[in-house]
Structure formats: structure tokens, C-alpha cells
Write a structure and sequence with these properties.
277 residues; alpha/beta; Rossmann fold; 12 helices; 8 strands
Length: 277
């Protein structure tokens, strides 16, 4: 049986494990958190996993990692060096380290855990309901069998996209961070509806249902430009709205936002490289 250890299981780790376990509840999953309170909360969300906290047991991370096939590293980037060094005695040569931290390069992980196979992944929060997007970038020491097994595990959480590590900043900009862009647009639309006289509850229900419907249409026809044109009648209400978006520079704004997220990812890699030493 495949054994997964999740170290420092925060919101993203919770989302990922939820998707994985929904797909295969029989997996042996061990997860750690920093505090007892967060461990208790995680236990209610992941009843099929063994949850422990470092607050209750300072050896919790090492115990969870011992014998694991895959160790998911969910700690904050600035905690990565200390965490991996602490885990080192529990690592076997075949244990695959799977980092989901933005801004921590594979080269730095290799310096922290020499000889360990390393995979960088970049998931997003819809992984919790099986609709995430997860970038997967294994280093050269990861076997094809392990990469395939990991891809299968992660597929329970959503679309897995193998890619070179050099593409992860771009993926971070459009998908890792991109979920929040849709949420921001939804907030703005709800606010606009309220200003036009709708109740907040009514506006929220309508926007959420509209977003859901639009997403489902794109799933069936992944060509957003075609879908947009199909509902944009000349002289109609939709075209009036779309012209406002376009004239206000929505494409330039989106490009700048995606680039800002990608650039920040690279900046974080440089900052965290210094902490590895």
C-alpha cells in the first residue's frame, strides 16, 4: 500500500489530501500540523487519515515521514529548510519529497536533502473538490514509476499537468493564483448588482450560479473566445458590457496580474535560496 505523509498540512495540503482520499479512501495517509487545535480541525475533515501535531509530539514530523513513499511538504517557504533538515534522519533513499511551496526551487531542496528524489507541485484550492489544477515537475532522480504513481494519486484532486520546473512561475500566475482572480470578478459583479438595486443575497446567488454555469460550458467547450462571441449579439446588452471591459484594458490587466504573480514566485525563490545556505 502506498504511504503518504503530509508535513505541515495547511489549507492547500488539506485541499490536496481531501481530493486524494475522496478518490481512494484506502490510502495510508499520515498528516501533521503545528498546533493541537489545527490537528483536531483537520481530523474532522480527513477522518481516514492519521493526524498528529508537533505541539503534542515534537517528533510528529519524523514519525509520520518514517517509511513513507511520498512526503508532501506543505510548510511555508521560509520554514522549508528547517523542516527538511529535521526530516533527514527519517528519509530513505527511495522516499520522494513532494514540495507544494511556491518560491522554493528544486535545486535548493536538493541541497537540503542530497540524494532524495524531489518533485515540485503547484496545486490550487479546488483540489479539495476534485477540480484542481496541479503542476507536476519531477527532478531527474524521480523514476518513471514513481512519477506515474504520484500523477495517479494527484489525479483524484484534479487535472495534473506535467511540466518542466521552468514553467511553474507561469502556471502559478494563471492557475495557482488564478482561482482568486475569478473570485475577485465575482465580488465585483455582486457589488455592481447591489448598486443597481439587488439585495446582496440575490446578487450573490445569481453571480455564483452564473460562474458555475460558465465553468461548465467551458468544460464542454474549452474555447472561451468562441463561447463569448456566441452570446455577443450586435447591439445587444452583452456586447455593451464586453466593450466596456475591453476598452478598460481587461487583457492588459490580466497579463500584468499574471506576470506579477509569476515574477513574485521567482523573487521568492531568490529570497528562500538565501535561507537554505
Amino acid at each position: 500500500m502506498t504511504i503518504i505523509a503530509s508535513i505541515g498540512t495547511g489549507n492547500m495540503g488539506r485541499a490536496l489530501l481531501t481530493g486524494i482520499l475522496d478518490h481512494d479512501p484506502g490510502l495510508d495517509v499520515r498528516a501533521t500540523t503545528n498546533s493541537s487545535a489545527s490537528a483536531q480541525a483537520l481530523s474532522s475533515d480527513l477522518p481516514n487519515a492519521a493526524i498528529t501535531s508537533v505541539e503534542e509530539d515534537p517528533e510528529a514530523n519524523r514519525k509520520a515521514a518514517t517509511g513513507a513513499d511520498f512526503i508532501f511538504l506543505g510548510v511555508k517557504p521560509w520554514m522549508m529548510a528547517e523542516t527538511v533538515r529535521d526530516l533527514a534522519p527519517a528519509l530513505s533513499p527511495d522516499t520522494v519529497l513532494v514540495s507544494m511551496a511556491a518560491g522554493v526551487a528544486t535545486a535548493d531542496l536538493q541541497r537540503l536533502a542530497p540524494g532524495s528524489p524531489i518533485v515540485r507541485i503547484m496545486p490550487n484550492t479546488p483540489s479539495a473538490i476534485g477540480h484542481g489544477v496541479i503542476a507536476l515537475a519531477p527532478d531527474d532522480s524521480v523514476t518513471e514509476a514513481n512519477a506515474s504513481t504520484l500523477q495517479e494519486l494527484l489525479s483524484g484532486a484534479g487535472l495534473v499537468v506535467p511540466m518542466p520546473e521552468s514553467d511553474i512561475p507561469a502556471m502559478t500566475g494563471i492557475s495557482g493564483s488564478g482561482v482568486a482572480y475569478f473570485f475577485l470578478l465575482a465580488e465585483a459583479m455582486i457589488d455592481a448588482g447591489v448598486k443597481l438595486g439587488l439585495s446582496e443575497e440575490t446578487a450573490k446567488q445569481m453571480v455564483v450560479a452564473t460562474a458555475d454555469g460558465a465553468g461548465r460550458l467551458m468544460t464542454h467547450n474549452p474555447d472561451p473566445a468562441s463561447l463569448r462571441k456566441s452570446v455577443s449579439s450586435k447591439g445587444g446588452t452583452t456586447l455593451a458590457a464586453l466593450d466596456t471591459f475591453i476598452d478598460s484594458g481587461i487583457f492588459s490587466i490580466a497579463e500584468a496580474a499574471v506576470k506579477a504573480a509569476a515574477d513574485r514566485s521567482l523573487e521568492m525563490e531568490a529570497e528562500n535560496a538565501a535561507s537554505v545556505g
